[in-house]
């Protein structure tokens, strides 16, 4: 994916992305949605937050992830990025517990991509706690500690918060990205994963301007 530049606004026409696309080319209602009731993150002045809603079992999220990894590594300092597993049903909620348990134990980097790989390249369903704990053990992590984290009240609260955010963001599918709790970009509103990130860049530039 071609890297982008955050150039700020340019006299009445908007910023120009690295691809040469004018920000004005992206339209509300066609390429992104504004929320009627924005979510307040309580950010300090000048800070911007981008959230990616995902599910480990989603093939589109799996193919999107390498681009997200490259993209987020080059975000400006004032832009925060957050993964948000979307618990839209019981299996998705189980996988949300996997992410938040890994986060609680400080092993997201060790498990995040391998968990995607296990599902999409190795054909492992990961639809039960026992299957997940076997995977955790195979990755050289402590399955007992992981089970405890998955069942913890703190992880349950995080999954509950994600379910609430899904409703507030009015999400109907994944992957979706939310900028500053007010603008939503979904895969169905774009022609490619690369364009999805271009639109997010547009919204970040708009927020910075």
Automatic annotation (TrEMBL):
Keyword hit for Repeat? no
The record's disulfide annotation reads 58-61
Task: List, alphabetically, the SUPFAM superfamilies matched.
Answer: Thioredoxin-like (SSF52833)
The record's listing under Pfam families reads: DSBA
Which superkingdom does the taxonomy of this entry point to?
A: Bacteria
| Chief location bin | periplasm
CDD domains, sorted? DsbA_DsbA
Please verify whether the record's keywords include Cytoplasm: no
- Ranges for domain Thioredoxin come to 11-205
Q: GO cellular component terms?
A: periplasmic space
Q: Do you know which PANTHER family this protein is assigned to?
A: THIOL:DISULFIDE INTERCHANGE PROTEIN DSBA
- Protein family per UniProt: Belongs to the thioredoxin family. DsbA subfamily.
Listed name of the protein: Thiol:disulfide interchange protein
Query: Which source organism does the UniProt entry give?
Result: Thioalkalivibrio halophilus
């Amino acid at each position: 994916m071609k890297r982008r530049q955050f150039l700020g606004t340019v006299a009445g026409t908007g910023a120009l992305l690295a691809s040469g696309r004018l920000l004005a080319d992206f339209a509300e209602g066609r390429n992104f949605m504004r929320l009627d009731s924005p979510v307040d993150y309580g950010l300090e002045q000048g800070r911007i937050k981008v959230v990616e809603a995902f599910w480990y079992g989603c093939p589109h999220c799996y193919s999107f992830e390498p681009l997200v990894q490259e993209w987020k590594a080059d975000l400006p300092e004032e832009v925060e990025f957050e993964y948000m597993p979307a618990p839209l049903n019981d299996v998705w909620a189980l996988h949300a517990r996997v992410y938040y348990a890994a986060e609680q134990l400080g092993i997201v980097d060790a498990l995040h991509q391998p968990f995607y790989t296990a599902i999409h390249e190795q054909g492992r369903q990961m639809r039960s706690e026992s299957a997940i704990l076997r995977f955790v053990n195979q990755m050289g992590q402590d399955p007992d500690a992981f089970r405890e984290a998955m069942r913890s009240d703190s992880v349950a609260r995080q999954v509950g918060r994600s379910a609430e955010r899904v409703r507030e963001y009015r999400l109907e599918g994944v992957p979706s990205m939310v900028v500053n709790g007010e603008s939503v970009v979904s895969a169905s509103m774009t022609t490619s994963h690369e364009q999805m990130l271009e639109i997010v860049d547009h919204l970040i530039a708009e927020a910075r301007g």
